[in-house]
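User: two proteins, same treatment. go.

Assistant:
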Amino acid sequence: MLFMMIVKASKNSEAGMLPSQELMYAMTKYNEELVQAGVRVMAKGLHPSSNGIRISYKRPGEKPVVTEGPFTESKELAAGFILIDVNSREEAIEWAMRMPDPQGYGEGQIELRQVF
């Protein structure tokens, strides 16, 4: 079963602030554990939304609208993701619970979604 752990953006990630050395070490260790367990498919961080582009379909049949970032609601944005292949929903939750606070500063939030 494929699951995506979506790391939600924060004010700090949107400002382009890099995590502390301690958090970078903890995340590297966590990713190594995922790889050693054979469950990590892919993991990537995303640039701040100031480098993003949003395509909106405002009306059926009409040309979509292109909006360049930044986008204002950082808690609705993604800062990165990890795609894992596990045996159950419960295992996906267990792996997500082991992730260090991905933003540090008590701002971290992970959304866990199953992939079709």
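Protein 2:
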Amino acid sequence: MDFVLDPIDRRILRELQRDATVPIADLALHVGLSQTPCWKRVKRLTDAGVISRRVALVERNKVDLGLAVFVSVKTSRHDQDWLDTFARTAAAMPEVVEFYRLSGDTDYLLKVLVKDIAAYDAFYKRLIAAVPLSDVSSAFAMEQIKYTTAVPV
């Protein structure tokens, strides 16, 4: 990383991860700065790409997406054309909220949020119709023990 974070930058990031809507005056107070230097630091962190965006976190159960499914994908194809097609297809599916290429026995892992098993089945059918896959395995989350979007800075 070319960008060096000092302790105040880290405090700013922790505060903003807790609540990105905090007024700059309150943020400055929490991190021990006056408003202008605090604003300049936030701008610098944003310009450097350390802060990539500010979003609203939606409670998935309140919007009828109570089922989280972890989808493990194995493929016998590892060429760039296949990867581009699979990545574009999976990334375009709104149910896919996280998507990773892995080392080990599983090639890709997708986190999918859906209403119920029927909605997952519809998603699954669209996925396997879109691109050839060797093996797809699904694990349904029984309980969410911890969830955070905060990066430990």
